[in-house]
Structure to design on (496 residues):
Protein backbone atom coordinates (compact mmCIF):
# COMPACT_ATOMS: atom_id res chain seq x y z
CA UNK A 1 0.00 0.00 0.00
CA UNK A 2 1.51 3.31 -1.02
CA UNK A 3 0.98 6.48 0.94
CA UNK A 4 -1.36 7.81 -1.74
CA UNK A 5 -3.71 4.91 -1.09
CA UNK A 6 -4.19 5.72 2.58
CA UNK A 7 -7.44 7.51 3.14
CA UNK A 8 -7.39 10.40 5.60
CA UNK A 9 -3.59 10.50 5.70
CA UNK A 10 -2.54 13.80 7.28
CA UNK A 11 0.16 14.17 4.61
CA UNK A 12 -2.53 13.83 1.98
CA UNK A 13 -3.02 17.62 1.83
CA UNK A 14 -5.18 18.01 -1.29
CA UNK A 15 -7.73 15.45 -0.07
CA UNK A 16 -7.73 17.01 3.40
CA UNK A 17 -8.36 20.55 2.19
CA UNK A 18 -11.49 19.60 0.32
CA UNK A 19 -13.03 17.54 3.07
CA UNK A 20 -14.78 19.89 5.51
CA UNK A 21 -17.72 20.45 3.20
CA UNK A 22 -18.20 16.69 2.99
CA UNK A 23 -18.23 16.22 6.77
CA UNK A 24 -21.10 16.52 9.17
CA UNK A 25 -20.87 18.75 12.22
CA UNK A 26 -19.93 16.00 14.69
CA UNK A 27 -16.98 14.89 12.57
CA UNK A 28 -15.81 18.39 11.64
CA UNK A 29 -16.14 19.71 15.19
CA UNK A 30 -13.69 17.10 16.47
CA UNK A 31 -11.09 19.63 15.30
CA UNK A 32 -11.18 22.19 18.16
CA UNK A 33 -9.97 24.99 15.90
CA UNK A 34 -12.74 24.36 13.37
CA UNK A 35 -15.26 24.21 16.18
CA UNK A 36 -14.05 27.52 17.61
CA UNK A 37 -14.23 29.10 14.15
CA UNK A 38 -17.84 28.01 13.66
CA UNK A 39 -18.83 29.22 17.13
CA UNK A 40 -17.29 32.57 16.21
CA UNK A 41 -19.09 32.61 12.89
CA UNK A 42 -22.48 31.75 14.41
CA UNK A 43 -21.93 34.27 17.21
CA UNK A 44 -21.00 36.99 14.72
CA UNK A 45 -23.96 36.25 12.45
CA UNK A 46 -26.38 35.99 15.40
CA UNK A 47 -25.42 39.33 16.89
CA UNK A 48 -25.43 40.86 13.42
CA UNK A 49 -29.04 39.79 12.95
CA UNK A 50 -30.07 41.02 16.40
CA UNK A 51 -28.41 44.39 15.82
CA UNK A 52 -30.01 44.60 12.36
CA UNK A 53 -33.40 43.88 13.90
CA UNK A 54 -32.92 46.70 16.35
CA UNK A 55 -31.74 49.25 13.82
CA UNK A 56 -34.36 48.41 11.20
CA UNK A 57 -37.08 48.68 13.81
CA UNK A 58 -35.71 52.06 14.77
CA UNK A 59 -35.39 53.20 11.16
CA UNK A 60 -39.03 52.18 10.61
CA UNK A 61 -39.88 55.32 12.56
CA UNK A 62 -38.58 57.39 9.64
CA UNK A 63 -41.14 55.84 7.28
CA UNK A 64 -43.37 58.39 5.54
CA UNK A 65 -46.39 56.06 5.43
CA UNK A 66 -47.80 53.20 7.46
CA UNK A 67 -47.27 50.81 4.55
CA UNK A 68 -43.58 51.78 4.39
CA UNK A 69 -43.26 51.38 8.13
CA UNK A 70 -44.79 47.90 7.89
CA UNK A 71 -42.29 46.92 5.16
CA UNK A 72 -39.29 47.86 7.27
CA UNK A 73 -40.85 46.23 10.33
CA UNK A 74 -41.27 43.05 8.28
CA UNK A 75 -37.58 43.06 7.43
CA UNK A 76 -36.71 43.65 11.07
CA UNK A 77 -38.88 40.74 12.11
CA UNK A 78 -37.24 38.48 9.50
CA UNK A 79 -33.83 39.41 10.92
CA UNK A 80 -35.06 38.49 14.37
CA UNK A 81 -36.04 35.03 13.14
CA UNK A 82 -32.59 34.58 11.64
CA UNK A 83 -31.17 35.53 15.00
CA UNK A 84 -33.34 32.88 16.67
CA UNK A 85 -32.13 30.13 14.36
CA UNK A 86 -28.49 31.02 14.82
CA UNK A 87 -28.87 31.37 18.59
CA UNK A 88 -30.72 28.05 18.82
CA UNK A 89 -27.96 26.39 16.82
CA UNK A 90 -25.35 27.71 19.26
CA UNK A 91 -27.36 26.29 22.15
CA UNK A 92 -27.78 23.00 20.30
CA UNK A 93 -24.03 22.54 19.98
CA UNK A 94 -23.61 23.29 23.68
CA UNK A 95 -22.44 26.90 23.47
CA UNK A 96 -23.75 29.81 25.50
CA UNK A 97 -25.18 32.11 22.77
CA UNK A 98 -24.47 35.30 24.69
CA UNK A 99 -20.83 34.37 25.21
CA UNK A 100 -20.49 33.56 21.52
CA UNK A 101 -22.00 36.90 20.50
CA UNK A 102 -20.19 39.19 22.95
CA UNK A 103 -16.92 39.45 21.00
CA UNK A 104 -18.77 40.96 18.03
CA UNK A 105 -20.93 43.50 19.80
CA UNK A 106 -18.42 46.35 19.53
CA UNK A 107 -17.94 45.95 15.77
CA UNK A 108 -21.65 45.87 14.91
CA UNK A 109 -22.56 48.60 17.36
CA UNK A 110 -19.72 50.68 15.97
CA UNK A 111 -20.97 50.13 12.44
CA UNK A 112 -24.51 51.16 13.31
CA UNK A 113 -23.39 54.16 15.34
CA UNK A 114 -21.30 55.39 12.42
CA UNK A 115 -24.11 54.85 9.93
CA UNK A 116 -27.19 56.22 11.60
CA UNK A 117 -29.50 57.19 8.70
CA UNK A 118 -30.55 60.82 8.75
CA UNK A 119 -33.73 60.23 6.76
CA UNK A 120 -36.00 57.56 5.30
CA UNK A 121 -34.08 57.20 2.02
CA UNK A 122 -30.77 56.70 3.80
CA UNK A 123 -32.52 54.12 5.96
CA UNK A 124 -33.80 52.30 2.86
CA UNK A 125 -30.40 52.29 1.20
CA UNK A 126 -28.85 50.98 4.40
CA UNK A 127 -31.46 48.21 4.66
CA UNK A 128 -30.85 47.20 1.05
CA UNK A 129 -27.06 47.36 1.28
CA UNK A 130 -26.98 45.50 4.59
CA UNK A 131 -29.30 42.78 3.39
CA UNK A 132 -27.34 42.32 0.15
CA UNK A 133 -23.93 42.20 1.79
CA UNK A 134 -25.21 39.70 4.33
CA UNK A 135 -26.56 37.50 1.53
CA UNK A 136 -23.28 37.67 -0.35
CA UNK A 137 -21.29 36.79 2.73
CA UNK A 138 -23.56 33.89 3.69
CA UNK A 139 -23.26 32.51 0.17
CA UNK A 140 -19.45 32.86 0.16
CA UNK A 141 -18.94 31.21 3.50
CA UNK A 142 -21.49 28.40 3.09
CA UNK A 143 -19.31 26.30 0.80
CA UNK A 144 -16.54 26.13 3.40
CA UNK A 145 -18.71 24.73 6.19
CA UNK A 146 -19.61 21.25 7.36
CA UNK A 147 -22.97 19.97 6.12
CA UNK A 148 -24.98 20.80 9.28
CA UNK A 149 -23.71 24.37 9.61
CA UNK A 150 -24.00 24.92 5.86
CA UNK A 151 -27.63 23.83 5.88
CA UNK A 152 -28.43 26.40 8.56
CA UNK A 153 -26.55 29.20 6.80
CA UNK A 154 -28.29 28.42 3.51
CA UNK A 155 -31.69 28.29 5.20
CA UNK A 156 -31.13 31.74 6.69
CA UNK A 157 -29.80 33.01 3.35
CA UNK A 158 -32.84 31.65 1.55
CA UNK A 159 -35.00 33.85 3.74
CA UNK A 160 -33.12 37.11 3.05
CA UNK A 161 -33.84 39.51 0.23
CA UNK A 162 -36.61 41.35 2.00
CA UNK A 163 -35.06 44.65 0.94
CA UNK A 164 -36.29 44.46 -2.66
CA UNK A 165 -39.03 46.96 -1.87
CA UNK A 166 -36.31 49.50 -1.07
CA UNK A 167 -35.05 49.51 -4.66
CA UNK A 168 -38.31 50.75 -6.11
CA UNK A 169 -38.64 53.53 -3.54
CA UNK A 170 -35.08 54.74 -3.99
CA UNK A 171 -35.40 54.72 -7.78
CA UNK A 172 -38.58 56.77 -7.60
CA UNK A 173 -36.92 59.31 -5.31
CA UNK A 174 -33.97 59.71 -7.70
CA UNK A 175 -36.29 60.08 -10.67
CA UNK A 176 -38.14 62.81 -8.84
CA UNK A 177 -34.96 64.64 -7.87
CA UNK A 178 -31.68 63.51 -9.46
CA UNK A 179 -29.61 65.37 -6.84
CA UNK A 180 -30.83 62.78 -4.34
CA UNK A 181 -28.78 60.22 -6.29
CA UNK A 182 -25.52 62.01 -5.57
CA UNK A 183 -26.16 62.22 -1.89
CA UNK A 184 -27.24 58.57 -1.63
CA UNK A 185 -24.25 57.40 -3.69
CA UNK A 186 -21.93 58.97 -1.12
CA UNK A 187 -23.98 57.40 1.64
CA UNK A 188 -23.76 53.92 0.06
CA UNK A 189 -19.99 54.29 -0.25
CA UNK A 190 -19.76 55.30 3.38
CA UNK A 191 -21.84 52.24 4.38
CA UNK A 192 -19.54 49.90 2.49
CA UNK A 193 -16.42 51.59 3.82
CA UNK A 194 -17.60 51.31 7.39
CA UNK A 195 -18.65 47.67 6.88
CA UNK A 196 -15.21 46.78 5.54
CA UNK A 197 -13.49 48.65 8.31
CA UNK A 198 -15.43 46.81 11.01
CA UNK A 199 -14.96 43.46 9.25
CA UNK A 200 -11.23 43.97 9.22
CA UNK A 201 -11.32 44.77 12.91
CA UNK A 202 -13.10 41.45 13.50
CA UNK A 203 -10.65 39.52 11.32
CA UNK A 204 -7.76 41.06 13.26
CA UNK A 205 -9.30 40.26 16.66
CA UNK A 206 -10.67 36.77 16.23
CA UNK A 207 -8.03 34.14 15.76
CA UNK A 208 -10.18 31.08 15.21
CA UNK A 209 -12.50 32.74 12.73
CA UNK A 210 -9.68 34.42 10.82
CA UNK A 211 -7.67 31.24 10.75
CA UNK A 212 -10.58 29.47 9.11
CA UNK A 213 -10.91 32.32 6.62
CA UNK A 214 -7.21 32.45 5.79
CA UNK A 215 -6.84 28.72 5.34
CA UNK A 216 -5.35 27.53 8.61
CA UNK A 217 -8.18 25.03 8.83
CA UNK A 218 -8.87 22.53 6.12
CA UNK A 219 -11.07 23.99 3.41
CA UNK A 220 -10.52 27.57 4.56
CA UNK A 221 -9.34 30.35 2.28
CA UNK A 222 -5.79 31.45 1.91
CA UNK A 223 -5.07 35.10 2.69
CA UNK A 224 -5.29 36.12 -0.94
CA UNK A 225 -8.62 34.34 -1.15
CA UNK A 226 -9.95 36.38 1.77
CA UNK A 227 -8.92 39.50 -0.09
CA UNK A 228 -10.70 38.20 -3.19
CA UNK A 229 -13.82 37.48 -1.15
CA UNK A 230 -13.92 41.07 0.12
CA UNK A 231 -13.34 42.21 -3.48
CA UNK A 232 -16.19 40.12 -4.84
CA UNK A 233 -18.55 41.45 -2.18
CA UNK A 234 -17.45 45.04 -2.85
CA UNK A 235 -17.85 44.58 -6.61
CA UNK A 236 -21.30 43.10 -6.22
CA UNK A 237 -22.19 46.07 -4.03
CA UNK A 238 -20.88 48.54 -6.61
CA UNK A 239 -22.90 46.86 -9.37
CA UNK A 240 -26.04 46.90 -7.29
CA UNK A 241 -25.57 50.57 -6.49
CA UNK A 242 -25.03 51.41 -10.17
CA UNK A 243 -28.17 49.46 -11.09
CA UNK A 244 -29.99 51.54 -8.51
CA UNK A 245 -28.77 54.74 -10.16
CA UNK A 246 -26.14 55.34 -7.50
CA UNK A 247 -22.90 55.39 -9.46
CA UNK A 248 -20.47 56.71 -6.88
CA UNK B 1 -98.36 33.79 9.94
CA UNK B 2 -97.97 35.98 13.02
CA UNK B 3 -95.19 38.52 13.32
CA UNK B 4 -93.40 36.29 15.87
CA UNK B 5 -93.06 33.57 13.26
CA UNK B 6 -91.12 35.73 10.84
CA UNK B 7 -87.41 34.99 10.98
CA UNK B 8 -85.15 38.02 10.96
CA UNK B 9 -88.02 40.33 11.83
CA UNK B 10 -86.57 43.65 12.99
CA UNK B 11 -89.09 43.70 15.83
CA UNK B 12 -87.77 40.38 17.05
CA UNK B 13 -85.22 42.08 19.30
CA UNK B 14 -84.15 39.32 21.74
CA UNK B 15 -83.36 36.82 19.00
CA UNK B 16 -81.58 39.53 17.01
CA UNK B 17 -79.30 40.60 19.89
CA UNK B 18 -77.86 37.15 20.49
CA UNK B 19 -77.18 36.30 16.89
CA UNK B 20 -73.89 37.95 15.83
CA UNK B 21 -71.69 35.38 17.53
CA UNK B 22 -73.54 32.64 15.66
CA UNK B 23 -73.08 34.27 12.26
CA UNK B 24 -70.19 34.00 9.89
CA UNK B 25 -68.50 37.10 8.53
CA UNK B 26 -70.38 37.22 5.23
CA UNK B 27 -73.75 37.17 6.97
CA UNK B 28 -72.80 39.54 9.78
CA UNK B 29 -71.11 42.02 7.41
CA UNK B 30 -74.33 42.49 5.46
CA UNK B 31 -75.10 44.98 8.21
CA UNK B 32 -73.00 47.99 7.15
CA UNK B 33 -72.74 49.29 10.70
CA UNK B 34 -71.40 45.97 11.97
CA UNK B 35 -68.98 45.84 9.08
CA UNK B 36 -67.72 49.37 9.82
CA UNK B 37 -67.30 48.47 13.48
CA UNK B 38 -65.20 45.41 12.66
CA UNK B 39 -63.06 47.36 10.20
CA UNK B 40 -62.47 49.90 12.98
CA UNK B 41 -61.65 47.14 15.45
CA UNK B 42 -59.19 45.41 13.11
CA UNK B 43 -57.62 48.74 12.17
CA UNK B 44 -57.23 49.71 15.81
CA UNK B 45 -55.75 46.34 16.79
CA UNK B 46 -53.45 46.28 13.76
CA UNK B 47 -51.95 49.68 14.40
CA UNK B 48 -51.71 48.86 18.09
CA UNK B 49 -49.59 45.82 17.25
CA UNK B 50 -47.40 47.77 14.82
CA UNK B 51 -46.85 50.55 17.36
CA UNK B 52 -46.12 47.95 20.06
CA UNK B 53 -43.57 46.31 17.78
CA UNK B 54 -41.82 49.62 17.26
CA UNK B 55 -41.73 50.60 20.92
CA UNK B 56 -40.65 47.19 22.19
CA UNK B 57 -37.86 47.11 19.65
CA UNK B 58 -36.79 50.53 20.85
CA UNK B 59 -37.04 49.56 24.52
CA UNK B 60 -34.87 46.51 23.77
CA UNK B 61 -32.00 48.98 23.60
CA UNK B 62 -32.34 49.54 27.34
CA UNK B 63 -31.68 45.85 28.06
CA UNK B 64 -28.75 45.22 30.41
CA UNK B 65 -27.77 41.93 28.73
CA UNK B 66 -27.95 40.37 25.29
CA UNK B 67 -30.32 37.69 26.59
CA UNK B 68 -32.69 40.38 27.92
CA UNK B 69 -32.46 42.24 24.64
CA UNK B 70 -33.37 39.05 22.76
CA UNK B 71 -36.40 38.49 24.99
CA UNK B 72 -37.83 41.92 24.28
CA UNK B 73 -36.99 41.57 20.58
CA UNK B 74 -38.90 38.28 20.59
CA UNK B 75 -41.96 40.02 21.97
CA UNK B 76 -41.61 42.77 19.39
CA UNK B 77 -41.43 40.21 16.62
CA UNK B 78 -44.53 38.42 17.95
CA UNK B 79 -46.41 41.74 17.87
CA UNK B 80 -45.34 42.21 14.28
CA UNK B 81 -46.82 38.84 13.33
CA UNK B 82 -50.09 39.82 15.02
CA UNK B 83 -50.02 42.97 12.93
CA UNK B 84 -49.54 40.90 9.76
CA UNK B 85 -52.55 38.69 10.52
CA UNK B 86 -54.80 41.64 11.27
CA UNK B 87 -53.60 43.58 8.22
CA UNK B 88 -54.06 40.52 5.98
CA UNK B 89 -57.57 40.08 7.30
CA UNK B 90 -58.40 43.69 6.44
CA UNK B 91 -57.10 43.12 2.91
CA UNK B 92 -59.04 39.86 2.68
CA UNK B 93 -62.34 41.61 3.42
CA UNK B 94 -61.53 44.23 0.79
CA UNK B 95 -60.37 47.07 3.04
CA UNK B 96 -57.27 49.17 2.60
CA UNK B 97 -55.30 48.35 5.80
CA UNK B 98 -53.63 51.76 5.97
CA UNK B 99 -56.94 53.58 5.74
CA UNK B 100 -58.37 51.36 8.47
CA UNK B 101 -55.41 52.04 10.76
CA UNK B 102 -55.02 55.80 10.23
CA UNK B 103 -57.84 56.88 12.59
CA UNK B 104 -56.06 55.20 15.52
CA UNK B 105 -52.52 56.43 14.95
CA UNK B 106 -52.88 59.54 17.12
CA UNK B 107 -54.21 57.64 20.15
CA UNK B 108 -51.48 54.97 20.13
CA UNK B 109 -48.71 57.40 19.32
CA UNK B 110 -50.00 59.65 22.10
CA UNK B 111 -49.98 56.75 24.53
CA UNK B 112 -46.42 55.77 23.68
CA UNK B 113 -45.19 59.36 23.73
CA UNK B 114 -46.66 59.84 27.20
CA UNK B 115 -45.22 56.57 28.48
CA UNK B 116 -41.66 56.49 27.23
CA UNK B 117 -39.81 54.24 29.72
CA UNK B 118 -36.84 55.92 31.36
CA UNK B 119 -35.06 52.65 32.13
CA UNK B 120 -35.10 48.89 31.54
CA UNK B 121 -37.45 48.11 34.47
CA UNK B 122 -40.01 50.67 33.34
CA UNK B 123 -39.76 49.12 29.86
CA UNK B 124 -40.38 45.65 31.28
CA UNK B 125 -43.39 46.78 33.30
CA UNK B 126 -44.77 48.52 30.22
CA UNK B 127 -44.30 45.40 28.09
CA UNK B 128 -46.04 43.27 30.70
CA UNK B 129 -48.90 45.70 31.30
CA UNK B 130 -49.43 46.29 27.58
CA UNK B 131 -49.42 42.60 26.76
CA UNK B 132 -51.83 41.79 29.61
CA UNK B 133 -54.29 44.58 28.80
CA UNK B 134 -54.27 43.58 25.14
CA UNK B 135 -55.02 39.95 26.10
CA UNK B 136 -57.87 41.02 28.37
CA UNK B 137 -59.36 43.24 25.70
CA UNK B 138 -59.10 40.57 22.97
CA UNK B 139 -60.81 38.09 25.26
CA UNK B 140 -63.61 40.53 26.16
CA UNK B 141 -64.33 41.53 22.60
CA UNK B 142 -64.06 38.06 21.02
CA UNK B 143 -67.43 36.84 22.27
CA UNK B 144 -69.23 39.71 20.52
CA UNK B 145 -67.82 38.99 17.06
CA UNK B 146 -68.93 36.91 14.11
CA UNK B 147 -67.26 33.51 13.86
CA UNK B 148 -64.60 34.48 11.29
CA UNK B 149 -63.45 37.62 13.08
CA UNK B 150 -63.61 35.86 16.45
CA UNK B 151 -61.40 33.06 15.20
CA UNK B 152 -58.74 35.57 14.14
CA UNK B 153 -58.91 37.52 17.40
CA UNK B 154 -58.60 34.31 19.43
CA UNK B 155 -55.68 33.10 17.32
CA UNK B 156 -53.82 36.36 17.96
CA UNK B 157 -54.75 36.21 21.64
CA UNK B 158 -53.48 32.67 21.89
CA UNK B 159 -50.09 33.89 20.82
CA UNK B 160 -49.78 36.67 23.43
CA UNK B 161 -48.35 36.27 26.90
CA UNK B 162 -44.74 36.71 25.85
CA UNK B 163 -44.24 39.13 28.72
CA UNK B 164 -44.04 36.45 31.41
CA UNK B 165 -40.27 36.81 31.53
CA UNK B 166 -40.77 40.40 32.66
CA UNK B 167 -42.43 39.30 35.89
CA UNK B 168 -39.42 37.41 37.15
CA UNK B 169 -37.03 40.29 36.38
CA UNK B 170 -39.22 42.91 38.03
CA UNK B 171 -39.69 40.74 41.16
CA UNK B 172 -35.95 40.25 41.45
CA UNK B 173 -35.34 43.99 41.15
CA UNK B 174 -37.88 44.75 43.91
CA UNK B 175 -36.37 42.08 46.15
CA UNK B 176 -32.97 43.64 45.67
CA UNK B 177 -34.23 47.15 46.39
CA UNK B 178 -37.78 47.55 47.77
CA UNK B 179 -37.84 51.27 46.91
CA UNK B 180 -37.94 50.23 43.25
CA UNK B 181 -41.42 48.82 43.96
CA UNK B 182 -42.83 52.21 44.90
CA UNK B 183 -41.49 53.87 41.79
CA UNK B 184 -42.73 51.09 39.49
CA UNK B 185 -46.15 51.06 41.17
CA UNK B 186 -46.59 54.72 40.26
CA UNK B 187 -45.37 53.95 36.75
CA UNK B 188 -47.87 51.10 36.31
CA UNK B 189 -50.68 53.38 37.48
CA UNK B 190 -49.62 56.01 35.01
CA UNK B 191 -49.57 53.42 32.18
CA UNK B 192 -53.12 52.32 32.99
CA UNK B 193 -54.33 55.90 33.33
CA UNK B 194 -52.89 56.85 29.99
CA UNK B 195 -54.30 53.71 28.34
CA UNK B 196 -57.79 54.47 29.65
CA UNK B 197 -57.52 58.09 28.59
CA UNK B 198 -56.55 57.17 25.03
CA UNK B 199 -59.22 54.45 24.87
CA UNK B 200 -61.88 56.94 25.87
CA UNK B 201 -60.65 59.28 23.17
CA UNK B 202 -61.07 56.47 20.62
CA UNK B 203 -64.53 55.57 21.91
CA UNK B 204 -65.55 59.23 21.63
CA UNK B 205 -64.15 59.60 18.10
CA UNK B 206 -65.21 56.40 16.38
CA UNK B 207 -68.92 56.07 15.90
CA UNK B 208 -69.12 52.62 14.38
CA UNK B 209 -66.78 51.00 16.89
CA UNK B 210 -68.38 52.72 19.86
CA UNK B 211 -71.85 51.90 18.64
CA UNK B 212 -70.91 48.24 18.56
CA UNK B 213 -69.46 48.52 22.06
CA UNK B 214 -72.45 50.38 23.50
CA UNK B 215 -75.01 48.03 22.03
CA UNK B 216 -76.28 49.85 18.97
CA UNK B 217 -75.44 46.77 16.93
CA UNK B 218 -76.90 43.40 17.76
CA UNK B 219 -74.83 41.61 20.38
CA UNK B 220 -72.91 44.75 21.35
CA UNK B 221 -72.66 45.97 24.94
CA UNK B 222 -74.87 48.57 26.48
CA UNK B 223 -73.17 51.66 27.86
CA UNK B 224 -73.08 50.28 31.40
CA UNK B 225 -71.52 47.11 30.04
CA UNK B 226 -68.71 49.12 28.39
CA UNK B 227 -68.06 50.72 31.76
CA UNK B 228 -68.00 47.27 33.35
CA UNK B 229 -65.57 46.04 30.69
CA UNK B 230 -63.16 48.88 31.47
CA UNK B 231 -63.62 48.08 35.17
CA UNK B 232 -62.86 44.40 34.70
CA UNK B 233 -59.71 45.21 32.72
CA UNK B 234 -58.61 47.75 35.35
CA UNK B 235 -59.27 45.30 38.17
CA UNK B 236 -57.33 42.54 36.45
CA UNK B 237 -54.47 45.02 35.97
CA UNK B 238 -54.55 46.01 39.65
CA UNK B 239 -54.45 42.35 40.72
CA UNK B 240 -51.56 41.58 38.42
CA UNK B 241 -49.62 44.57 39.74
CA UNK B 242 -50.26 43.51 43.35
CA UNK B 243 -49.09 39.98 42.54
CA UNK B 244 -45.96 41.55 41.11
CA UNK B 245 -45.33 43.40 44.36
CA UNK B 246 -46.57 46.69 42.94
CA UNK B 247 -49.46 47.59 45.21
CA UNK B 248 -50.10 51.17 44.19
Amino acid sequence: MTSSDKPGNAADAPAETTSVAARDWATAAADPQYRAAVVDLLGALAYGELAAFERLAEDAKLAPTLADKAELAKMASAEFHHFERLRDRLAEIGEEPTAAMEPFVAAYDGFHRQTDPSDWLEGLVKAYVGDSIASDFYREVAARLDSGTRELVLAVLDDTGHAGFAVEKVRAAIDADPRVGGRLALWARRLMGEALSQSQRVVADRDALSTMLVGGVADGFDLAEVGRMFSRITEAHTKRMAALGLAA
In short: The mean pLDDT of chain B is 84.
